[in-house]
UniProtKB/TrEMBL annotation:
It catalyses: L-glutamine + H2O = L-glutamate + NH4(+). Keywords: Acetylation, Hydrolase. Belongs to the glutaminase family. It is an enzyme of class 3 (hydrolase). Homotetramer. Substrate binds at S69, N121, E166, N173, Y197, Y249, V267. Its EC number is 3.5.1.2. The gene is glsA. This is Glutaminase. It comes from Bacillus carboniphilus. InterPro entries: Beta-lactam/transpept-like, Glutaminase.
Amino acid sequence: MFCVTCDASKELEDLVAKARPYSQHGKLASYIPALEKANKDDLSVAIYHLDDGTCTYAGDYQEKFTLQSISKVLSLAYVLAHIGEGKVFQKVGMEPTGDPFNSIAKLETSKPSKPLNPMINAGALVVTSLIPGQNTSDKWEKFLQFVQTLSGNTEIGYCKEVQESEFETSNLNRALCYFMRQHGVLEGDVESIMELYTKQCSIEMNCLDLARIGAVFSNNGRDPLSKKELIPEQIARICKTFMVTCGMYNASGEFAMKVGIPAKSGVSGGILGVIPNRCGIGVFSPALDEKGNSLAGWTLLELMNKKYDFSIF
Ligand code: DON
């Protein structure tokens, strides 16, 4: 991750110390077996400040984690930029579900049978199926490059162990794909889509890299240092809107009330936070609450909101 300076913050360290005990009440994700190897106590946070391009951090900030569902925001931005809003929203909706992220229920009851939004698994699988490229490896390489550019870190890659673990056990996601293919919402070879999807979910980074990605969204799609456009402003806006309405699964309403910022979590325990025109935030703590959000991570963001007045509302 490249920024002007990165400094440990005593203030943030105090908040981390208050939030860390909450991780004991959470559970590691186990449906992707490799995720269960995480250290339950880990908690890290980084803030990338737009005004001076500096980064402050606290906790286990060097610890890497996989993006999991956080990658859904990035694949959405990428696909919107490459094939346009019209084609994407023909296949995936814009409404929150109130259901768990991997639920199949609304696919059966909605007419037409398209996923309600791109932040649930069904919607994200459709988005992944729309990533352009000659073949799976071409699609993957270009998408990974995009994530490297957003994070300002060309060393970012994916965790093979987590990817294989998910690929081998993704029966529910395969079921979602086949259901949608039957209804003409998803096209293409399901195994290739699963390979690409599990790779994007296994992209690995630390909280500093994630905060840098948050800073790009915070800066309306522009690189926080060079000011170059990395994501068109309108697409960055769409992504932030989905983060507010659907980013924390079926706890998005409660999160908006208690923290009040665009955010996206993943079952590895990562949370990407964006405070428009102010900063990007990366948080990681792998023990989850019953809805799949990082327990200590959420608590830390609540404490940060009280101290720094983050809420956009
Ligand atoms: O598809 C899955 O189940 C995981 N790779 C990601 C799930 C996740 O992080 C929660 N999602 N919204």
